[in-house]
Amino acid sequence: MLNEFVTMFRDKTGYLIVEPAHMELAEPSITNAFSSCVQQGANRVIVSPFFLFPGRHWHQDIPSLTAEAAKEHPGVSYVITAPLGLHGLLVDVVNDRIKHCLKHVAGDEAECAVCAGTGKCRVYQLGEA
């Protein structure tokens, strides 16, 4: 899903160089994504954490991993943006998701791409999970 988001982001914003990255446990790593951006011609890398709120990863881990990645590319600067946080448009996103799911459980919409095939988007009764 991260790769799909990156494609959507690239297409909608027009940024030519957009790479996904993971902090740990998955590839590409921040180091590999940083290098990929530089290989594609970036002289500044923007690291935009796809997190709702700031926490240890944003305060410590991402800056540390990004600084380590930047050591391999002297002369390339970087910026680490704020996480999504309390941005007003998130209210619209959450409300859109709620409206879609309510339409789905009413039988008026198909499942969204997130829920498709999971059976999770339904009305539950007490004791069901």
Automatic annotation (TrEMBL):
Nucleotidyltransferase among keywords: no
This protein's UniProt keywords: Lyase, Metal-binding
Domain of life: Eukaryota
Pfam families in the record: CbiX (PF01903)
Gene3D superfamilies: 3.40.50.1400
Alphabetized InterPro entries for the sequence: CbiX-like (IPR002762), Sirohydro_Cobaltochel/CbiX (IPR050963)
GO terms of molecular function: lyase activity; metal ion binding
Protein's name according to its UniProt entry: Sirohydrochlorin ferrochelatase
Organism this protein belongs to: Vitis rotundifolia (Muscadine grape)
